[in-house]
Amino acid sequence: MKQRNQQAYLNSEVNLQTNERKKPNTPFTQYGDLFYQNPSNFMEITKPSEQFETQLWLKSNQQIKNNSSSNLIHNLVTQTQLIQTTINIFHEKYDILKILKENQQCQIVQCRNIITQEYVVAKICILHNFKFGVDSEIKVCQTLQYYPHSKLMKLLEMFTDKDTHIFIYEYMEGGTLFEYMQHKQLKLDESEIRIIFKQLLKALNHLDSLNIIHRDLKLDNIMFKVRGDIKSLKLIDYGFSTLLSDVQGLESRCGTPGYVAPEIYEKSHAYNQLCDIYSLGAIIHILATGKRIYSSKFTSKEICELNKQNKYQISINKKCTLLYDIITQMLQNVSNRPSAQKCLFHPYFIKLSELNNSEQINQQIYKLQFPQFKNPFQSFQ
User: Fold this and answer.
1) Structural domain contains residue 374
2) In 104-232, beta strands by DSSP E
3) pLDDT > 50? residue 18
4) Quick one: pLDDT at residue 103?
């Protein structure tokens, strides 16, 4: 009974933002939260999806094929022909199987390639009132096409017309990190935490090298390609991602309360890739303890205020001092927060045998610097 209560506690914390997106008893994988507003406006976006006026913009394949007026264009064709310029091609190539999630601005649907029978996920976006956000995601995805990484979900292709943009991503059938924690009853082994942690840091380090900020790291935006294989982990959802060079994109203040770096809330302060390090620190704390750094006993408005002031609470067992130390560093103010690359060199990721060897070397160096001479006054026997 205690374990069941603990799991319900985590579920209530992690799903603070999920009122409008989760559908019960769905047989398909749920993807990460999408299109959050400014964290300070969180209360405005928690209405159930049934209260939204649904826009009938997802038509059947045959209806779309017969609609010749939707064939043209945003001139977004790249040299690699990554972007197709007609939505008709999408409906000729893919069958829509299931709506996984939807809100006012987009739908996430599971599709199947008609020729190869491969499963994919399509993110279908309405461009009106959301044009800039889509453009930012396009720039990030194009950059990742040229510089891919095994721990970042792969974009396969894009389709666009004057009203709609469709991203085709690889299908992650292994479920989310949150679902994995539920399956493990909120108890991850130390070795599992270290493997997951290191993979995510490598993904962030790659994004850092490309001057990309993700801005929405959380349990639901981490998925597995293969169910039960934690080494198949990938970071997903580039809806809030932006380039550091995109000044207009950096003006956006976005993310999920409880994971957001405090500097994101401050409109007068600039921010950079280190905001993702803060979010990852909050995630690793959940993996290690089953609890969030901002408890669900607070209202959503109170969580936003605590998050803004960085008044978090660490519940981690201090017996694991190295893990406690690195999480604490990642949750510091931005001026003292380490980069992903620096985190990868933290002693927490060094094998115990290597630490022992290092200690032996330090002792040998100490002996060389301070040799122990024989006491000339000691009597001989």
Assistant:
1) no
2) 106-113, 119-126, 155-160, 164-170, 212-213, 222-224
3) no
4) 80
